[in-house]
Amino acid sequence: MTQANAKLQDRIALEDLAIEYANAIDARQWDRLDSVFLPDARIDYSATGGIDAPYAEIKPWLAKSLSFFRSHMHLMGNFRFEIAGDQATGQVACYNPMVIRNLLGVGTRTVVFGIWYHDRYVRGEQGWRIASRRQELCYTLGMPLWMRIGRYLYAKLQARQRRG
Question: What residue stretches are annotated with the SnoaL-like domain (predicted)?
Answer without folding.
Answer: 7-134
